[in-house]
Design goal:
The structure is a homodimer. Chain A is built from nine helices and no strands. Chain A is mostly helical. Helices cover 76% and strands 0% of the residues of chain A. Chain A folds into two domains: 56 residues, Arc Repressor Mutant, subunit A, CATH 1.10.10.60; 133 residues, Tetracycline Repressor, domain 2. The structure holds a DNA duplex.
DNA sequence: ATCCTTTGACTGAACGGTCGGTCAATAAAA
DNA sequence: TTTTATTGACCGACCGTTCAGTCAAAGGAT
C-alpha cells in the first residue's frame, strides 16, 4: 500500500520546499515581489512551475511564508522574552543584533523593507508582525522609562525609527555606509 | 482656416497633463508602481487609456515625471544653496521642514519611499536624486564638522538615516507616531 | 447666418505578450 | 499496481501600448 515510506516523502518534501523558498527569496529580493514571476522562481529553484503549486497554494503564500520565517528568525536571534527587563549590556547587544541582521542577511531584510510600502501586502505583514514585535517594544519603552525619559513611548518610537533608518541606509548603500561607526553612535545616544 | 488658437491648446494640455499626474500620484501611492495599471490611472483621471499616451510616452515616464517634480518641490522648499553654511536655527528649520514634508504630503512621500526598494527603478531614481541632494549632504557634514564631531561624514549619514526612519514611521503609522515629540528629540540630539 | 475646412484632443478596440494558476500525463519507486 | 512527486502545455485575464477613426471648436469664405 505504501511505496516510499512516509518518512522518505516527508524529507523529500521538506528539502524541495526549502529550495523553493530559498529561490523565492532571491528572486523577490532582486526583482521585488510584483515584478518577480512564478516562472522565475521555478527556474531559480530548478523546478517546474507546476510543482510550485504542489508546495504552495499561491505566489502570495510563498511570500507570507518567507516573511513569517523571517520574523521567527529575528525573534529567535534576539531571544526577547515577554516582560524582560533590559540591562544596559543587553540593550546594547540588541542594537548590535538588530543592525547586524540587515547587514548579514541583506536579501531577507530587503524583501521585508520593500514590502513596507506595498499597500496590498502591508496589512498581512502587520498582522503577522505585530504580536511578535510588541514584547520588544514593551521592553524598550520600559528601558527608557527606567532611564528617566519623560515620554518613554515617544523615545521608543524615535529609537526604532532610527534603527529602521539605519538598516535601510545600510541596505541601500552597503559599500559606503559606515555601519560600525553608526552603531556606536546609536549606542552612545540611546544606551 | 484656423481651428483653436495655440494658446487655447496649450492651456488645455497643461490642465489635462496635471490631472493625469495627480491621478497617477494617487494610484501609485495607493497601489504601488507595479500593481497600478495604466487603466486605473486613466479611470482616476477621467480620461481614456489612449490619451495617456498622448501626454506621456510610457507608464515609466509618468513615474519619472512625478519623482522629478517631487525633488524639485523639496529643493524649492528647503532652499539649500550649494555651499551654504548652516546656523543652528537654519539647521533646526531644515529638520522641521524635512519631517513636515512626509507628514503634509504623504502621497508623494509614500511613492518616493516605495520606490527605494524596487530594484528596477532605483537606479533611475538615484540618477535624478543624487545631484539635488548632495548640496544638502555637504552642508550637513560641514555643520557636524563645525560642531566638533570627529567623523562628520558618519554623523551626517547617521543623521539622514534617522530622518528617513522617522519619515518612514510617520508615514506608516500617521495616527500614533508622535511626530512633534520625535522632532524635538531629533533637534535635541543633532542640533 | 450658414457652410466648410482644419486642427488636435480624444476614444476604445485590438495587439502581442506575460502573468498566476491548472491539469492530464508521466516517472519513479516499492 | 499503487502512490506520489513532477512536468510543461495550456488557460483566461490582464498588462502596457498602439492606432484608425471621431468629435468639438474656431475662422474664413460665401
Amino acid at each position: 500500500m505504501s511505496p516510499r515510506t512516509k518518512q522518505q516523502f516527508e524529507e523529500l518534501r521538506k528539502d524541495r520546499r526549502q529550495a523553493i523558498l530559498n529561490a523565492a527569496l532571491t528572486v523577490f529580493a532582486n526583482s521585488g515581489y510584483h515584478s518577480a514571476s512564478v516562472s522565475m522562481i521555478a527556474k531559480e529553484a530548478d523546478v517546474s512551475k507546476g510543482l510550485m503549486y504542489n508546495y504552495f497554494p499561491s505566489k502570495e503564500a510563498v511570500l507570507l511564508t518567507l516573511v513569517n520565517d523571517l520574523f521567527d528568525h529575528v525573534v529567535e536571534l534576539l531571544r526577547i522574552t515577554p516582560g524582560e527587563v533590559l540591562t544596559r549590556e543587553r540593550f546594547i547587544e540588541l542594537i548590535d543584533l538588530q543592525i547586524d541582521i540587515a547587514v548579514k542577511e541583506p536579501q531577507r531584510w530587503k524583501l521585508y523593507m520593500s514590502l513596507a510600502f506595498q499597500p496590498e501586502v502591508t496589512p498581512l505583514l502587520m498582522e503577522t508582525m505585530l504580536p511578535k514585535v510588541t514584547p520588544f517594544m514593551m521592553s524598550m519603552s520600559q528601558y527608557f522609562h527606567a532611564k528617566g525619559y519623560e515620554d518613554p513611548v515617544a523615545a521608543m518610537r524615535y529609537f526604532s525609527a532610527s534603527l529602521d533608518g539605519v538598516q535601510m541606509h545600510a541596505l541601500l548603500d552597503p559599500d559606503n555606509f559606515p555601519v560600525e561607526k553608526v552603531k556606536q553612535m546609536v549606542i552612545m545616544q540611546f544606551a
